[in-house]
Amino acid sequence: MQTQVLMITIVFMLIMxxxxxRVVRSVKSEKPLERIETKRRGMIWSMLxxxxxxxxxxxxxWPHSIPTAGSTKSEIVQVNATGAQWYWEIDTTEIPLGKTVxxxxxxxxxxxxxxxIDANGTLLAQTQAMPGYTNKVKYVFDKPGKYRVIxxxxxxxxxxxxxxxxxxIANTEELGG
Length: 177
Ligand SMILES: [Cu+2]
Prior knowledge:
Blueprint lengths: L1 H27 L4 H27 L17 E8 L2 E4 L3 E3 L3 E8 L4 E6 L5 E7 L5 E6 L4 E7 L12 E6 L8
Parallel strand pairs: 1-4, 3-9
Antiparallel strand pairs: 1-2, 4-7, 5-6, 5-8, 8-9
This protein binds copper (II) ion.
Copper (II) ion binds next to loops.
């Protein structure tokens, strides 16, 4: 998707550059003012129309639905994560590969930032842990291995130690439910 957006942006920028160059050229040539004015109006209208078409075409699919990997409701894995100063409590250490996981994120005290990162430290999913709320974030893990849960909101002196981890396992038969 990012590549598509980049391509659309580049194409659009090229069109704009061509239009700009043509406008500059038409201003330089000493045509009667009226003709230039008509041309300018035509260009503004065509740019508007192109803009509307590109926007409608590219923005219609947004916001993205979260990939559910074809999971039915019973196949969705619920994981409860509770933040507190200064630890995460996650009710499982093993998560199945390729299934939709819903993290139900809570806090027992102050605001925390629930973030799931992979072994390279890339942030994969995040949501806020807020007093009085259960915030949900969905994710489908497509690589087995170790993942870490970190806190993404400065929540006190022990903030940096607010980490936990879980393993994504390919063979879900090993999991006890
Ligand atoms: Cu924190």
